[in-house]
Design a protein that fits this description.
Shape: elongated
Radius of gyration: 18 Å
Structural class: mainly alpha
Number of helices: 11
Number of strands: 3
Number of domains: 2
Oligomer: single chain
Helix content: 55-70%
Order of helices and strands: HHEHHEEHHHHHHH
Distance between the termini: 50 Å
Strand order of the largest sheet: 1-3-2
């Protein structure tokens, strides 16, 4: 029987769960209902075949724990579900609990395990963001020429990122004014370049929830609109 303790063992073994696997799991945990689609997996990992990524992770964990998958290897990690009309993987509660206990994700977000009510989930997001960003900083977007890369990033922040996390203070948004200027200047092509080109001081200010969910799509926007 799959349990939280099984997953804790796997999370502590870098052959069963590699660094890039942890990046996927922490981003996955932050998605609403802990449900992730193939498109979202591709955005987070940069992989073309999302099912291969999820199944291979399931296989490594199953092999390490010496347990049999219930169907596909992805069943070790998740149950089948949907997001809108798209098929999705819904993270097992046992895995989510192990991520919390291991310290890989914020403890306060673990309350998602106890509720699926949308209003309560929204309240949890607010608590997480306020805890991470105790004070609002007065920042304003600079004027951007219509159609420019800066304008594209501002629009993405206002229409997409804020729709998902409306309570994040401006100074701690993934696409805050300072970050937009840095991204336009450096044009990082992938996460590795982003970590080298953008200062640690600026990156540390960013909400981890926004970064986990939207950094890959933002990097894709840079590539498409540079």
């Amino acid at each position: 029987m799959i349990s939280k303790e099984f997953f804790l063992k796997a999370l502590g073994n870098n052959k069963a769960v590699r660094t890039q696997d942890m990046e996927l799991l922490t981003a996955w945990f932050a998605f609403p209902e802990r449900a992730v689609t193939a498109e979202q997996v591709a955005e987070v990992t940069g992989a073309k075949r999302a099912s291969l990524i999820v199944n291979n992770l399931g296989k490594r964990i199953a092999s390490f724990l010496d347990i049999e998958p219930e169907g596909t290897a992805a069943s070790i990690l998740a149950l089948e579900g949907t997001v809108g009309e798209a098929s999705a993987w819904i993270m097992r509660d046992e895995l989510a609990a192990a991520l919390v206990e291991s310290g890989a994700v914020a403890t306060v977000t673990a309350n998602l395990e106890e509720t699926r009510n949308e209003e309560e989930v929204a309240e949890i997001d607010i608590v997480v963001e306020k805890a991470a960003t105790p004070a609002e900083t007065e920042l304003e977007y600079e004027e951007a020429e219509p159609g420019s890369l800066k304008a594209v990033l501002i629009e993405y922040d206002q229409k997409v990122v804020r729709a998902a996390y409306p309570q994040t203070p401006l100074a701690n948004r993934l696409l805050n004014p300072e970050m937009i200027n840095a991204l336009v200047s450096e044009l990082p092509a992938n996460k590795r370049v982003y970590q080298r080109a953008i200062s640690a001081e600026l990156r540390k200010k960013v909400s981890s929830q926004e970064a986990n969910r939207f950094l890959q799509p933002v990097l894709k926007l840079l590539k498409e609109n540079a």
